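Hi everyone, sorry if this is the wrong subforum. Our group has a chain we'd like a structural model of before ordering constructs, and none of us has done structure prediction before. Sequence below.
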Amino acid sequence: MARQRSEFLGSLGKLFEIFKKVVHGIIELGGDDDNIDRIGTDDQLAKDIAAVICGQAEVVYTKDRKTATIIVDDPALATALKSLENDMPDAVLINVNYVEHAKQQRTQRRGLDIALDRYGDTESPMILVSFEAQEQLQEDERFQQLIAKPNVAFLRLPASLDDYRDLYAQLI
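Answer:
Right subforum, don't worry. Here is the predicted structure as tokens:
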């Protein structure tokens, strides 16, 4: 099967205009040339930007206050969890079965890799969520490593917003 190409690759003018808007956005948020350069050098950042653009992730940036970090690939769940930001301002909420792109499967538990790679050293309360039972996840060494930390807890989906609040209160 032939690799899908974007029409934008043949139009440098259009690409320039898009990149220019991104650069202006970075500058408006207080970024500089180093931040702009990271787009071309940090593969994970490029994937994160693509995930936001494709609607598979939501990123909230603020200067003056902490906000919850929410890493889920379900728009309805993301919207519901966003309503908890004021109640859980420093929480990290991660779907264990997060899927970044179509070639991944939920059974790969990509959320565990993200939790370890990006937030493994954080002291912020971290809530891992999944439709899988905790007993199933306990078989995964990455899950064992995370759940052993005092600031990490697991919540089986489906869960109410009060379940998140209660678990967060136990972690702080």
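For your construct planning: The beta strands are 69-71, 92-95, 126-130, 152-156. The longest helix spans residues 12-28.
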